[in-house]
TrEMBL record:
GO molecular function, one term: phenylalanine 4-monooxygenase activity
Native source organism of the sequence: Stenotrophomonas indicatrix
Keywords assigned by UniProt, alphabetized: Iron, Metal-binding, Monooxygenase, Oxidoreductase, Phenylalanine catabolism
PANTHER family, alphabetized: AROMATIC AMINO ACID HYDROXYLASE, PHENYLALANINE-4-HYDROXYLASE
Record-linked SUPFAM superfamilies: Aromatic aminoacid monoxygenases, catalytic and oligomerization domains
Record protein name field: Phenylalanine-4-hydroxylase
Length: 297
């Protein structure tokens, strides 16, 4: 593996806001360069989220964090996590500067490599940061890679991504929505009650509470094509969360070849993020309170 010298990602201010400069290089986690502030940021966030997530995140997620030896004590070393993770499911964490071009990202997943941003947010960004940092990637995404079924789902997604990329932008949009409404913002109905498994939710205090407890958003049963048609929000909490019954259900529903599905969806209208459809399996129809108009991606 070619490893580059780590450096903090630079951003360009454009008329669309801050745009990250994409870099594809893998970096060795520069663990010794983390400052006391960096470790303190991890500790604060870890403690706060763990307290909130007991009884809110699915048990697989919480148990995996413990098994991997993640704790509030300090920022974990990728090398140490990789020993446990590799033995459990064969996944490897690789350090990156930040967001990767889509095809590179898919290729990593297809080969059971999960790119983790090496740097952590500044103390003044504790509650919100627009781009993924180490806390989102490591605390949010990595634990479920310990689960054999979810681990297989992520690899299959990577291979599906390479394929969708070759088919075209619309297929890619359909697939990205699936990632968004499962890997990032998914809920799971367990015998103990509704729980969170999406990384975008577990790494956010506000959305951990909102996604489960607010009356505003819709909570709708997982349906592959429904999700692939549904726009989403990148600047507010989600208007709709999709609920799986199990990781096995997710794996089974996504195992067919998507090529004919992409073709069939090409003629169908995209759905606004907050819509409820007649044939939805509705866990909760949201009140829509506090929703922003427009802005669906
Ligand atoms: N079955 C999908 C395809 O043929 C691949 C995939 C699997 C996509 C799991 C996402 C999740 O494209
Ligand atoms: Fe993410």
């Amino acid at each position: 593996m070619d490893l580059a010298q780590p450096r903090r990602v630079e951003h360009q201010q454009t008329d669309k806001g801050y745009v990250p400069v994409y870099t594809t290089a893998l970096v060795e986690q520069p663990w010794d360069t983390y400052t006391a502030d960096d470790h303190a940021t991890w500790s604060t966030l870890y403690q706060r989220q763990r307290e909130l997530l007991v009884g809110r995140a699915c048990q697989e997620f919480l148990d995996a964090q413990d098994e991997m030896g993640m704790s509030a004590h300090m920022i974990p070393r990728f090398n140490q996590l990789n020993e446990v993770l590799g033995a459990a499911t064969g996944w490897t964490l690789v350090g990156v500067e930040g967001l990767l071009p889509e095809l590179d990202f898919f290729d990593h997943l297809a080969n059971r490599r999960f790119p983790v941003t090496w740097w952590i947010r500044r103390p003044d960004q504790i509650d919100y940061i627009a781009e993924p940092d180490l806390f989102h990637d490591l605390f949010g995404h990595v634990p479920l890679l310990m689960n054999p079924v979810f681990a297989n789902y992520m690899e299959a997604y990577g291979r599906g991504g390479v394929k969708a990329h070759a088919i075209g932008p619309e297929a890619l949009q359909n697939l990205t929505r699936l990632y968004w409404y499962t890997v990032e913002f998914g809920l799971i109905a367990t015998p103990e009650g509704m729980r969170i498994y999406g990384a975008g939710i577990v790494s956010s205090k506000g959305e951990s509470l909102y996604s489960l407890e607010s009356a505003a958003p819709n909570r709708i049963g997982f349906d592959l094509q429904r999700i692939m048609r549904t726009r989403y929000r990148i600047d507010t909490f989600q208007k709709t969360y999709f609920v799986i019954d199990s990781f096995e259900q997710l794996m089974q529903a996504t195992s067919p070849d998507f090529t004919p599905i992409y073709a069939a969806l090409a003629d169908q209208a995209h759905l606004p993020a907050g819509d409820v459809q007649a044939d939805d399996r509705v866990f909760q129809a949201g009140t829509g309170e506090g929703w922003a108009d427009g802005g669906d991606v």
